[in-house]
Design a protein that fits this description.
With 487 residues, the protein is mostly helical. It contains 24 helices and 5 strands. It has a domain of 223 residues: 3-Layer(aba) Sandwich (Rossmann fold), CATH 3.40.50.300.
Length: 487
């Protein structure tokens, strides 16, 4: 039975492997490694509560390297459940067992970054680097904690030594290169900064087996299917027998979407200061739903019944309730939900959707300068970013033609110029009470901010990102030409 379960796991037959491990453990519950493997599979299958239980059973049964089970529990608490206190507790337990456990130290430092505890995070990175000077990930993260107001020659030198050592993997070269580009940009050494960012993106692509390639034709075809007349008709049609979503006591969503790096995190934190509104972060519920349950999408869209939609909407609101218990409204700021606005409006006919915008050239360059997940393969090449941006604008024009009353454009550049007036107009559109006071700094509410721009968001509002592309114009001819005529 154990051979069968491990064989299914190796073949990535996740549901069958879960069933095999569950049958095995029903008979022999004292097998710690089987519990550990079951937990790993349950997390893959989107069953975080079951995975937490199975990891605990592995610990109770005496699993070898228990610090790894605590680490995995912490990741579930942080990334899925949103219980950061429990995540910290699990990491501290892991480090009590093994104080030199580098993955535990890295994850605890990263959690402290999210929780606005920068000094504690920096101290942990320094501890790692004293013991492991060659820990490139710790060096890159430490460099990203440094203020961007001035250069830091010793850290710049350390980053360059690590990059030229020949010992860094492609993934590590990407992390180091993005950190170096950030510091060189702060030092106004723009040609060197651009070269560092370009090398970092190339390393990021190299770190993916087979290379991370953006298929422009495939993405165009997907957008064309989304805006096809038959799909548009489905998106706006009333579903027979569909009732307004029930679920008393459960929160309702407000969606923030648009391009990455267009100000969505900043806006979420500003709105979260309003009474009754909670920041939910970048939730993967809808993208996961589309990928796992509604494939092929959007063709599956027309087959959804009233009962299907009611069930999905209820599950989504229950998910929001676990993230922000007691909050009437919760923000889902997953930027690429703009792809699924038709589905969102079918699930929540009264949903309000905020589309974040900024100067296109600044937006595209900011994406290129950020270490994003390689699954967003368009982000690794300026030409691909421009193509994706044009498709975004085309699709948003389509959605606004269908749902103009529900979609509110919000401009980041206007926000940093006239913050109070811009927020006042937005809150009036959403029916929210605006205090009229802009916070001096963000992220002091105790909420975690999980975003690559975390430390920018925690600063007071600033304008240095508006017009940033002007420093790099000599390298942006192709990008400027591609953005010259936008939909």
């Amino acid at each position: 039975m154990l051979r069968e379960a491990t064989s299914l796991q190796r073949r990535n037959a996740v549901p069958a492997a879960i069933e095999a491990y569950e049958r095995l453990l029903a008979l022999w519950p004292e097998l710690p490694d089987a519990w550990f493997n079951l937990a790993y599979l349950q997390r893959q299958a989107g069953r975080p509560e079951d995975a937490l239980h199975a990891y605990q059973k592995a610990l109770d049964a005496g699993v070898s390297s228990p610090e790894e089970a605590h680490l995995n529990r912490s990741v579930i608490y942080t990334d899925i459940v949103g219980d950061h206190a429990s995540a910290e507790r699990e990491l501290l337990l892991a480090l009590k067992i093994n104080p030199e456990f580098t993955p535990g130290l890295l994850n605890l430092a990263n959690l402290y970054e999210d929780l606005n505890r920068g000094a504690a995070a920096a101290g942990l990175y320094e501890k790692i680097l004293r013991r492991e000077p060659g820990c490139h990930e710790a060096l890159a993260r430490y460099a990203n904690l440094l203020p961007v107001k001035a250069a830091n020659p010793p850290v710049v030198a350390a980053l360059r030594r690590a990059l030229h050592s020949g010992r860094a993997t492609a993934a590590e070269r990407a992390s180091l290169g993005f950190a170096l580009g950030r510091l060189l940009d702060a030092a106004a050494d723009y040609p060197a900064a651009f070269a560092a960012y370009r090398a970092a993106n190339e390393a990021s692509r190299e770190s993916v087996p087979g290379g991370a390639r953006y298929d422009r034709g495939s993405h165009e075809a997907f957008v064309e299917r989304l805006i096809a007349p038959d799909q548009s008709a489905v998106a706006v049609a009333a579903v027979p027998g569909r009732r307004p979503e029930s679920g008393e006591g459960l929160p309702r969503p407000i969606f923030i979407c648009g391009m990455f790096r267009s100000g969505s995190t900043l806006l979420e934190q500003l709105l979260a200061a309003c009474t009754g509104l909670a920041a939910g972060g970048e939730l993967d519920f809808i993208p996961r739903l589309v990928a796992e349950e509604l494939s092929p999408f959007p063709e599956s869209f027309s087959r959804l019944t009233s009962a299907d939609l009611d069930g999905i909407a209820a599950r989504y609101r229950e998910h929001l309730g676990r993230i922000a218990p007691g909050a009437p409204l919760v923000i889902d700021k997953r930027p690429d939900n703009f792809l699924y606005i038709g589905l969102i409006k079918r699930l929540f006919p009264d949903a309000r959707i905020i589309n974040t915008l900024r100067d296109p050239l600044d937006n595209c360059l900011s994406i290129y300068f950020l270490h994003l997940d390689q699954r967003m393969s368009y982000a690794l090449d300026l030409g691909d970013i421009a193509h994706y941006y044009r498709q975004y604008r085309l699709l948003m024009a389509h959605w606004q033609g269908l749902f103009a009353e529900a979609i509110i454009d919000f401009n980041y550049d206007e926000l940093v110029k006239e913050p109070a007036a811009t927020m006042s107009r937005l809150c009036a559109s959403l029916g929210l009470a605006w205090s009229g006071q802009m916070p001096q700094a963000l992220g002091r509410t105790g909420n975690a901010i999980k975003t690559a721009s975390v430390w920018q968001v925690r600063e007071p509002l600033y304008r240095r990102s508006s017009g940033r592309a002007q420093h790099y114009l000599p390298a942006l001819d192709e990008l400027r030409a591609a953005l010259a005529q936008l939909p």
